[in-house]
Write a structure and sequence with these properties.
Layout (H helix, E strand, L loop, with lengths): L43 E11 L6 E11 L8 H18 L5 H13 L10 H28 L3 H9 L1 H16 L4 H9 L4 H9 L1
Antiparallel strand pairs: 1-2
Length: 209
Amino acid sequence: MQNIDGTYPLGENLPTKPNLVTIERQETFPITPQASTGRKDPHSTSKFITRLKKIRNTSQYEVISVPVTVPMVPPPPDPFPKFDAEASKILQQFEDFLVGKAPSDYVKFLLRCYFKDSSRRQGEIGLFMEPLDDLYKMQEAYRSISMKALQVDGPSERQKKLDCAGNKIGRLVSWLEDIWRAGIDGPYGLCVAYNRNRLVWQREAKISR
């Protein structure tokens, strides 16, 4: 105990100075977020998934959301250009088959060979049957391509355009089939149908001009 004059009695331990603990102030520096470039990776996308996280010093868990980057699956290639190229190839084959003639002129050429006295194939119905073998193959191949294009593209404008482009093959087939039916019993029946303008070719060729 301290005396009035500020001294301490003998034998009494002087009070020790308290331990001075230096408390350093810990400065905190805010994290400055990086400036966004404004660009997004076109090949990936971000989404959040939920995970369980154990709470420290407990046996409990909490649900947290974690951002993850998921690569984007690229769209499948457009198959239509392939079908368009195949269709164009058949149309070129059709043009080569006509040897540069229009379908209506090709039919007129066959009829001339059929009726002309000086023709070596006068009266031969095979003039109209033989071309059908090749035309049937072209027609079926084109129809198959058009159906495939419809399945992958639906009734789109380009699919409709592709389908209409092949109509001239079917039109020529129908003309030759009609002529063959008219002349199946001989030149007389075909001659009568021709003179009376009963052939499908005569009607449709005038409309298409």
